[in-house]
């Protein structure tokens, strides 16, 4: 075995080297060509909403800030890179003394975001702006994916409690921890992930596993023991043997014998297998008849938004859903396809030169230039009408009507009056210095819930939602056309 | 904002509290009932191979060992738990002085593993053996999922190079880092994930992104600059504008003008979009005609085992595949459903009392008792014939014929002669002390490749593979039947 330091899941974490190797070969290339300090602009954006949905929920900005604040190449990083025989000493020396100098803008977490609009914009020396690509994508892609999935699931639950239960099936430790964080942002009420509660102050919940029941001689003994330990939080898992023949009768017996004499009420019963609709209806009737109409019915077992909607439409009587693997991995579509593209550079006179990447596929052509996003709201309903991506210097005069149009099918036009606008992006770094403080996770969740009230229900449909308008300003549209025609020549 | 310590992606990592909250409520319950030191046996196993495959590749044991070696509740963990008003001071005091005392067995990484056999067995005080459930599942589920997916993809590539390119679309930072590790175990040749190279000594590779090409005035300038910086590793991305009209001609021009005069050969060209079959065939012909038959063709762009097999069957001329999001998230089936079940306890006389969990679904009934696994090999071909799960005290006499039978359809029987057996599981912890050292990742990869030679090709098919036999010994089968009949009574 080599005598080198081994990576340990419990090590201190320096994620600076969590980077695609080509960012390093390119960075070294910029140095060799002496263009490392050329100012570049990159947009991070996505092209498609997962699961055929109409919106995504932005998440991950707080972790992105932490990463950018802690960029730091250790001596062992430098030694490792030197051993590759690819990098110049000048470049390695630069890394050794690395100091982050970029400007960064982001859409704050919890916002409703849409395809083809920048979620993050970076401006700075190309060697730096390029380097941070991997972690920007990794961070925003992951948490936005899970927050969006959680939001769909919570919408299906229609006001009922949703608990995130997925840690054991997450894709890695951060998948569990930040997945729990993003789930709360997306609308979940609580999580089973204890460390997420400790650090993000989001409520952790949990009762018993089948093993508790198995460990005792009988199910009744197991329930009795639990009720004695947790008379104020007595929630029993009733499907280890047989829900209706054994689990529920034993639970009610224990409620009657242990809780009732103390004047306590049971919290709930949980079912983790079998036919949810049938069992919950039966259990509800039996619990009500036994004098426990306040005992909640909790279900778990491979749930997602479709199953939840389906069993509720069949009249299942459920108070609370525990959602595991299908949420924590976004199982139905586990990839969030955010990309990071060069959109402009500055020339020697600090003039912005927009850049475009063309493609056979019209939707894949990038929007060039240094931009900002306006969200346009109706003055009466306060509903969001459209987003307008504009060049950064553009200002909208809210006192005047605003004509917006589809960026490809340009004959689709609309003139908006009686509106106001809000700029979506905030500056989070100014020349490498953090200038934005993230709210707490519960504040973000609350913010996101309020934002949802400003979205037309048509946008929020599970399938075939109305496509929210993300338009380009006249000037940006014109610039794009110019560049396209020049490229094609 | 609260004045509490905030979790930071760059913090030192103590994953002790990455635990489902119910493990803690149960643990506290065991204390209250004074059964915390009852000796329990848990099996971790899975029930189904993802993607309809015939086998999985075991991975994650090294990280599991690290976690178990570092279980440690800090004062702030204890304070946090106390604030929940659920846990007794006696229990909190126990956590404060926590010392891991369990025995742990595991199947070493890289092994071919199959449904319903234990991958990990834990024996120890129930309070401890229960507590570590979440991290055992999280660790083994994630890495086994990705190693298995990687193995399928590498089999489709049929000896061609496969590079793991997925960091930016991984589900969290560990998803990228340990996903890269598991990809190599599964058979990938290299990864783009730099930190995985630094810590696991698996080769990191990478060249350029589209942004490098865009940054220069022309594609030719960009390629020329690259060839000048990396004359010995000149691999060019040729699809920023148009592969055949612009990318490839510019690449060949640069090979001719920059590399040839230096006596250098190009490494490769990469295509990241468009029709792979058509483009690679065209490119191969043009490169050959231009005098570069040794220039490799590398493709990327949402590849998986099915697309790779498909384009190769159409005659695509590809030397190397870069596989991203569909590998790093196991997109087609992103959940590995490992479970952790109580299978036995010891009574006060240290006698093992087997436990069973029954289910309507026959496949979901657990295998009771403290067990071990024999893999049976044919003495001539050295191919694996079957696995036999036996009670831990059972010994197979290889000199005698061995009758094995299907554990449910028991009339399906076979007598094996001319065989030898190997015990699959190794002891990794003895009363809380590590007694096994993980090989390096490349050693595991090599081991796994050798193991694949001992598997019948019928097991390795992508679809409808032959089901590898995982049978129960006569004694174990009998024990299970006894318990089942007792339960049903």
From TrEMBL, chains A, B:
Single Gene Ontology MF annotation: nicotinamide phosphoribosyltransferase activity
Keyword Ligase attached: yes
UniProt keyword list: Glycosyltransferase, Ligase, Phosphoprotein, Pyridine nucleotide biosynthesis, Transferase
Pfam families named among the record's database cross-references: NAPRTase, NAPRTase_C, NAPRTase_N
A Gene Ontology term for the protein's cellular component: cytosol
Keyword Cell division attached: no
Pathway: Cofactor biosynthesis; NAD(+) biosynthesis; nicotinate D-ribonucleotide from nicotinate: step 1/1
Domain Nicotinate phosphoribosyltransferase C-terminal: start-end pairs: 371-480
Catalysed reaction equations from the record: 5-phospho-alpha-D-ribose 1-diphosphate + nicotinate + ATP + H2O = nicotinate beta-D-ribonucleotide + ADP + phosphate + diphosphate
EC code(s) of this entry: 6.3.4.21
Domain Nicotinate phosphoribosyltransferase N-terminal, chain residue ranges per copy: 17-141
Residue ranges of every copy of the Nicotinate/nicotinamide phosphoribosyltransferase domain listed in the record: 162-341
Changes after translation: Transiently phosphorylated on a His residue during the reaction cycle. Phosphorylation strongly increases the affinity for substrates and increases the rate of nicotinate D-ribonucleotide production. Dephosphorylation regenerates the low-affinity form of the enzyme, leading to product release.
GO biological process: NAD+ biosynthetic process via the salvage pathway
Function statement: Catalyzes the first step in the biosynthesis of NAD from nicotinic acid, the ATP-dependent synthesis of beta-nicotinate D-ribonucleotide from nicotinate and 5-phospho-D-ribose 1-phosphate.
Family per similarity comment: Belongs to the NAPRTase family.
Protein name, per record: Nicotinate phosphoribosyltransferase
Species lineage: Bacteria, Bacillati, Bacillota, Clostridia, Eubacteriales
């Amino acid at each position: 075995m080599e005598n080198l330091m081994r990576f340990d899941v419990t090590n201190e974490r320096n994620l600076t080297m969590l980077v695609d190797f080509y960012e390093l070969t390119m960075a070294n290339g910029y140095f060799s060509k002496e263009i490392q300090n050329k100012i570049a602009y990159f947009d991070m954006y996505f092209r498609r909403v997962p699961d055929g949905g109409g919106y995504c929920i932005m998440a991950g900005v707080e972790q992105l800030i932490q990463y950018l604040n802690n960029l730091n190449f250790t001596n062992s990083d430098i030694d490792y890179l030197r051993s590759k025989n690819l990098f110049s000493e000048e470049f390695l020396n630069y890394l050794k003394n690395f100091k982050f100098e970029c400007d960064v803008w982001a859409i704050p977490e919890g916002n409703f975001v849409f395809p083809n609009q920048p979620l993050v914009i970076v401006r700075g020396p190309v060697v730096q702006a390029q380097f941070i690509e991997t972690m920007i994508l990794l961070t925003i892609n992951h948490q936005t994916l899970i927050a969006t999935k959680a939001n769909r699931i919570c919408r299906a639950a229609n006001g009922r409690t949703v608990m995130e239960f997925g840690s054991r099936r997450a894709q890695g430790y951060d998948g569990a921890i930040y997945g729990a964080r993003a789930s709360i942002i997306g609308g979940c009420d609580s999580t089973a992930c204890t460390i997420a509660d400790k650090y993000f102050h989001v409520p952790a919940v949990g009762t018993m596993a089948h093993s508790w029941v198995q460990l005792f001689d009988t199910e009744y003994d197991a329930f009795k023991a639990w009720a004695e330990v947790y008379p104020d939080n007595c929630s029993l898992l009733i499907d280890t043997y047989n829900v209706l023949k054994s689990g529920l009768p034993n639970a009610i017996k224990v409620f009657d014998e242990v809780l009732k004499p103390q004047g306590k009420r049971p919290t709930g019963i949980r079912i983790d297998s079998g036919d949810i609709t049938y069992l919950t209806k039966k259990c509800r009737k039996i619990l009500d008849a036994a004098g426990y109409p306040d005992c909640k019915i909790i279900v778990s077992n491979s749930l997602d938004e479709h199953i939840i909607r389906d069993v509720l439409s069949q009249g299942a009587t459920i108070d609370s859903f525990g959602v595991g693997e299908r949420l924590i991995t976004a199982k139905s579509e586990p990839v969030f396809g955010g990309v990071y593209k060069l959109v402009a550079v500055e020339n020697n006179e600090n003039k912005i030169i927009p850049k475009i990447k063309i493609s056979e596929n019209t939707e894949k052509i990038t929007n060039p230039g240094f931009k900002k996003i306006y969200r346009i709201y109706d003055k009466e309903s306060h509903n969001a009408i459209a987003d307008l991506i504009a060049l950064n210097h553009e200002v909208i005069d809210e006192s005047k009507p605003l004509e917006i149009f589809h960026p490809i099918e340009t004959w689709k036009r609309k003139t908006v009056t009686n509106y106001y606008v809000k700029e979506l992006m905030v500056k989070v770094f100014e020349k490498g210095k953090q200038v934005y403080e993230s709210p707490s996770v519960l504040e973000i969740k609350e913010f996101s819930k309020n934002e949802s009230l400003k979205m037309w229900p048509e946008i929020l449909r599970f399938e075939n939602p109305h496509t929210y308008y993300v338009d380009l300003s006249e000037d940006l549209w014109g610039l794009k056309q110019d560049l396209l025609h020049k490229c094609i020549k």
